[in-house]
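[audit] Reproducing an earlier prediction to check determinism. Same input, same settings, fresh worker. If the tokens differ from the archived copy the diff job will pick it up downstream; this log only records the rerun itself.
[audit] input (118 residues):
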Amino acid sequence: MIYLRVFVVGGLLCLIAQILMDKFKMQSPYVLVTYVTMGVILTFLGIYDPIVEFGAAGATVPLLGFGYCLANGVKTAVAENGLLGAFTGGIVGAAGGIAAAMFFGYVMAIIFKPKPKP
């Protein structure tokens, strides 16, 4: 049953992004920034936590999940370090994902020969 919930939540998030691009002619970078920002805002409002509990990876893997990760990192760091945590918490909270993306991107660049676009 968890697979169905993950699929439904992730699919709905992708559907909303597709509607933004098709109906409102929103370009991809604007959708990306909007999704990350909405993930942060919804997390601070306490709305995104129940969505994550219901949809699990369907809610944490898309870009809204990156905003969720940043916001949770900031909340934790502010609780531990005060105001300084507002500046450092997001990076600390998302460091594992960022490091993994850089590592695997580098490995793929070594395995496959990158070519510039014509």
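[audit] rerun output stored. Observation attached for the diff report: The radius of gyration is 17 Å.
[audit] end
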